[in-house]
Design a protein that fits this description.
Layout lengths: L8 H4 L4 H9 L38 H11 L11 H9 L7 H7 L1 H4 L3 H30 L7 H29 L2 H6 L2 H5 L3 H6 L34
Helix pairs in contact: 4-7, 5-7, 7-8
Length: 240
């Protein structure tokens, strides 16, 4: 029994033997990509080989922060120029110059972060505590550096700076968990990268004693708020 003209073969297959046999008799030809798995350069010109790249960085000389401190203190003592007094040193280091103040940055962006009233109050309270403690850490160091004579010891001066730096970073490390707990997950995602990094324990541990062997340190903030690139020297940093 043949299918009538115009009839739909789809509706007639169950009872149209001729149409069903015709469909089943059709042959389909499949071709496989002949270049599949080929390793010949002629047919795989764009094949990317597996590569391993290693990059090493060696800093020669004193760390950048030590160079900046030495140059500042030597001016007017061992090199020509005006001696850096206590106000200038206080502007450089008095506000905890080795790190930014993430609390102040969060308060400046209260609108974009959509801080609630209780959140803003808590951040402001912590910011005042952080500012007072930073001043207490750096004030005696700044006063001692300003009183150095012309034959001062570079190692002693840098030792004063380094201990104050470590205490300053340790203070921020102790507050970072509380600061992060005040913010929601969405607010933490909105934080600028530089603020988020100064709330990260691993980053703070890496800059605690200096930025030796690292890249830019966003912390070396002068009184004008200009970031001073810091890095260099040689040091082994173990982060746990």
């Amino acid at each position: 029994m043949d299918c009538a003209a115009g009839d739909s073969w789809r509706s007639r297959i169950p009872r149209c033997c001729t149409c069903a046999a015709s469909i089943l008799a059709q042959r389909f030809r499949y071709e496989v990509n002949q270049r599949f798995g080929a390793t010949r350069p002629a047919v795989s010109a764009f094949r990317a080989p597996v590569t391993v790249t290693a990059q090493l960085r060696f800093d020669l000389g004193a760390s950048r922060e030590r160079q900046v401190l030495t140059q500042t203190l030597d001016r007017g003592r061992r090199t020509p120029g005006q001696k850096a007094g206590e106000p200038q040193l206080s502007a450089m280091y008095g506000g905890g110059g080795v790190t930014i103040n993430p609390l102040a940055q969060i308060l400046r962006q209260a609108d974009s972060l959509k801080l609630t009233g209780p959140q803003a109050d808590s951040v402001a309270t912590m910011n005042r505590f952080f500012t007072i403690r930073q001043a207490a850490i750096w004030a005696p160091v700044v006063k001692a550096l300003a009183k150095l004579d012309d034959g001062y010891d570079h190692d002693v001066a840098y030792g004063l700076y380094r201990r104050a730096r470590e205490n300053s970073v340790d203070l921020l490390r102790s507050l970072a968990p509380s600061i992060k707990s005040l913010l929601t997950a969405e607010q933490r995602r909105r934080l600028p990268a530089i603020v988020a990094s100064h709330l990260d324990q691993r980053y703070l541990a890496s800059i605690r004693s200096g930025t030796m062997g690292g890249g830019l340190d966003f912390g070396g903030m002068m009184g004008s708020g200009v970031a001073v690139p810091q890095g260099g020297g040689g040091q082994t940093i173990i982060i746990r």
